[in-house]
């Protein structure tokens, strides 16, 4: 079986070691390298483990599968748009457990009307991972607070709203929060 593990890993910008550590259970970078090059046989179990670690479907890792990908036509940088030095792809994101979305109805801070924000929900023990990131915090009566998490103090979160002149808000004991991980913007 011909796999595209290396192509997809590189498109995701991940190292062999990062993929190996994200596998469940974790493995070694050397094993991932052998699976990529075909020096070790890739089983369905391995395909599923690696696909999960890369955030794609297993079919995206097999040549001739019904893969979802976009070919990279150019790389944009300070010097303008340049052709890639070698063939590259972008693999569209996959929805993971615990993800929620926010639709932007009106421009706010860096976000424009029509933007979609994909958020990963976090439990209280993981809130420190969201420091200095934009978060959605549930409030009583079906309300929410959206802004930059600037501090976590015992069981209180300090959130700075994105609107100009917004005052810091303190939220005690939220059951979860959503940290923005991906921005989807139509042009």
> Strand arrangement, largest sheet?
5-6-11-7-8-9-10
Cα gyration radius (Å):
20 Å
Counted by DSSP, the helix tally is: 4
Major β-sheet annotation: 7 strands, antiparallel
Order of H and E elements:
HHHHEEEEEEEEEEE
- Strand % is 25-35%
Total E-strand runs: 11
The geometry reads as globular
Q: How far apart are the first and last residues' alpha carbons, in Å? A: 39 Å
Secondary-structure content class? alpha+beta
The share of residues in helices is 10-25%
Helices and strands, with pairings:
Blueprint: H1 5-11, H2 16-22, H3 29-37, H4 44-54, E1 70-71, E2 75-77, E3 80-82, E4 89-90, E5 99-103, E6 116-122, E7 134-138, E8 144-153, E9 156-161, E10 169-172, E11 177-184
Antiparallel strand pairs: 1-4, 2-3, 5-6, 6-11, 7-8, 7-11, 8-9, 9-10
Spell out the key features of this protein.
187 residues, alpha+beta, 7-stranded antiparallel β-sheet, two-stranded antiparallel ribbon, 11 strands, 29% strand, globular
